[in-house]
Amino acid sequence: MSFEQLLQGHSPTVRELAEEARQLVLSVHPQAHQEVETSWGGYLLFKQVEGAGNTVCWISLAKKHVSIGFSLGAELADPDGLLEGTGKRQRHVKVKQASQLSSPGLRALLERAWASQPQAEVLQDALARVREICLGLEGTREKLSHGHPTFYTGKRSYATYGIYAPSIAIKPDPVRALAYAADERFFPTPYLAHQGWLSLRIDAHTDWGLVRQLLEESYGQA
Hints:
Layout: H1 3-7, H2 12-28, E1 33-37, E2 43-47, E3 55-61, E4 66-70, E5 91-95, H3 104-115, H4 120-135, E6 140-145, E7 148-153, E8 156-161, E9 167-170, H5 174-181, E10 186-188, E11 198-201, H6 208-221
């Protein structure tokens, strides 16, 4: 599905708001990778890097408004109080009028969201490293799951790259998981934490020896 197809069926006002919101995001980060997700009514996702990037922000369309969402909105400074939502991580700004898109506060939120991301080269290198490790484990195959590179052995997944943040999601040994959970580099994997999954943040200082250990450990748990 293309962005133009995503707009179909909506009122001229909503279509115009969506296009202007898209241009606002691109004015902040012209190199953003754009991708349409068809689930949940459809979203226009903006990622740092194709394939290796997590969703930084997105645009969704409703009957009378457009929302600009932030995957890690709960971590963003919001002095103007623009963000809505009560989730652990996501927040959104509801846009009902074009004048809202010229708000300095909204632009500042977008700038902060992009500034929080590692450099594109870091993310591309990280995915290449993860692939090298995982595909070196017997019987591993890779496929996209909800836009994220995911690694399977048999029918069970044991690693996913980038859910909401530059990260690697794994399912560690339950005993070790207690120690990892106390480490600030880790956070509960969205949607999967109740099944014992943890995510390790990826940045320029990632310990790749630890990553290999985690991936091998998760592979053994699958």
